[in-house]
Design the sequence.
């Protein structure tokens, strides 16, 4: 079983879409192995997205991610990393395929409802970032 890391971002949590998104996640065969509702500090958001530090949207992204609570997830399934990227859809909701989470719940490229790891290494790093020392079941 492969594990990946996901976030239900502050826009989707504030809109009351957490339960709907979790339902779709489970309907698509993922097991939720870890889940926490957190309110990231700006510093935590900056560390988490440090790969984007030189990008023009870095400040807006980290301000948004630290603006309100989000839900961090560890998702488990065969092929979880690719499967979760597919279920999320394209970064820009306008470009996302019908039925994907970003199409259903995203409003714009900077308020796009969900995050997901893009590869094996980042999945391991991102799970460790938020769930180090915690029991994943
Ligand atoms: P993801 O893996 O699909 O989430 O996309 P990236 O890792 O490339 O970017 C991380 C997050 O930064 C995205 O989910 C967007 O919310 C935001 N982002 C990416 N590109 C842009 C952009 O060109 N403009 C803005 N405003 N935000 C962006």
Sequence:
């Amino acid at each position: 079983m492969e594990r990946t890391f996901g976030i239900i971002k502050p826009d989707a949590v504030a809109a009351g879409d957490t339960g709907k998104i979790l339902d779709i996640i489970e309907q698509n065969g993922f097991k939720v192995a870890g889940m926490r509702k957190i309110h990231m500090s700006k510093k935590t958001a900056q560390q988490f997205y440090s790969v984007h530090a030189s990008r023009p949207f870095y400040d807006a992204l980290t301000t948004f991610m630290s603006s309100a609570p989000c839900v961090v997830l560890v998702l488990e399934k065969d092929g979880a990393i690719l499967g979760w990227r597919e279920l999320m859809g394209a970064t820009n909701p306008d470009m996302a395929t019908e039925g994907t989470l970003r199409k259903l719940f995203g409003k714009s490229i900077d308020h796009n409802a969900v995050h997901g790891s893009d590869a094996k290494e980042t999945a391991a790093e991102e799970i460790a970032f938020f769930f180090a020392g915690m029991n994943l079941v």
Observations:
- The domain at 2-39+71-131 is CATH 3.30.70.141 (Alpha-Beta Plaits).
- The two ends are 12 Å apart (CA to CA).
- The beta strands are 2-8, 31-38, 70-77, 114-116.
